[in-house]
Amino acid sequence: MNNEGVxxxxxxxxxxxLTVVGAVGTGYLAVPFLSQMQPSxxxxxxxAPVDVDISKMEPGQLIRVAWRGKPVWILNxxxxxxxxxxxxxxxxxxxxxxxxxxxxxxxxxVRSIKPEIFVAVGLCTHLxxxxxxRPEIAPSDxxxxxxxxxxxxxxxxxxxxxxxxxxGVPAPTNxxxxxxxxxxxTLLIIGEESTTEKSA
Length: 200
Known about the structure:
The protein is of the alpha+beta class. The chain has helices at 8-36, 41-46, 79-86; strands at 50-53, 62-67, 70-76, 117-121, 132-134, 149-151, 158-159, 180-184, 187-190. It is 22% helix and 20% strand.
């Protein structure tokens, strides 16, 4: 084949142009593919801290919020409930919460920053069922030893109103306490641990 009449500069230009067009095309294909690998706004928001206004909570009331796809309970405990907690230590597996998950600010007998406000992840530490809130004293289905707490209907685990697990039930540890802090006396942020607040 005779290549004498071929203009080498045109060939080089066409090769360069095709290379640039190919690179741009590859970029257009790669950007949507790579952007799908990034977490969505909804997914990022699911792990974000949650603000909770507790200004309208009544004594004894439990409210529920979602944080990181988990239920979180906020309970306004009465002085009677706080007194009852002291009498249960002998019936609990880990009364001092030495084997349980909680931030430093909640490492105390009531497992909270402020004694009256209890915050916990509402999932049983056995297999992750959500226990029911049973504040009544000695109901017929739970017996006279029940002083109020959380009962897991899946496998029968008992937790007191500080989320501490009773002896002889399937759950191995106390309910998890998430990181949280107070912005004001009536506004909590769940998902951020306080570095200044002292435990009760």
